[in-house]
Amino acid sequence: MPPVNGSPPPGILRCRSATPADADAIAALHADSWSRHYRGAYSDAYLDRDAQEDRRSVWQERFRVEPEDQLTIVAEQGGDLAGFAHTRIDADPEWGALLENLHVRHNLKRQGVGRALMAETAVALLQRRPTSPLYLWVLRQNVAAQAFYAALGGLVVGEEVAGPFPGGGTAPAYRVAWRDPRPLVGSRL
After folding, report:
1. Lower Cβ count inside 10 Å, N or C end of the chain?
2. pLDDT tens-digit profile of 147-157?
3. Cβ of 110: how many Cβ atoms within 10 Å?
4. How distant, in Å, are the alpha carbons of 20, 83, 106, 168 from that of 39?
5. Predicted model pTM
6. Half-sphere exposure of 75 toward its Cβ, with a 13 Å CA cutoff?
7. How far from 85 is each of 49, 115, 145, CA to CA, in Å?
8. Contacts of 157 (CB under 8 A, 6+ apart)
9. Is 68 helix (H, G, I), strand (E, B) or coil?
10. Domains of the chain and any CATH numbers
């Protein structure tokens, strides 16, 4: 069956550049993901009461400013936000672009959404900076995310205490890097 109004059929994953109209949905997913995975690092009070509004404010500001050195990609499934990735290009002179956020809706984990977002991030980065490495920080407590990045060829190249986080708190985090992000393109759906 052909797509209706240009939308893919239900169940088909589609990645695209985010727009300001996506800010609230991204903020809601961001806050939900933090609440599920960052307890113990971020304060419970912040996660339970303030994260939603804080993330909404952050994302509205990101889209208001729209700096050239950032890119945000959303994944949609059936017209709903399935996940997003946000990258700061040229964030570090040695490590290159910082994948600052990668979050997938909880009920869609392990279905290829994160892999597709990583691939699309690599494609967009390589178009802008063909020789740029890519890196991210993952909390030591987030073992599932560490396994995901390792399966995509990411190497742990450092560790430090991250934070203070919004609402307070710090936690050990690993720097995971891809000196060459081109192999990530092969994970594209």
Report:
1. N
2. 999 999 999 99
3. 10
4. 29, 20, 15, 12
5. 0.90
6. 28
7. 24, 11, 14
8. 95, 135, 175, 176, 177
9. coil
10. 13-185 (3.40.630.30)
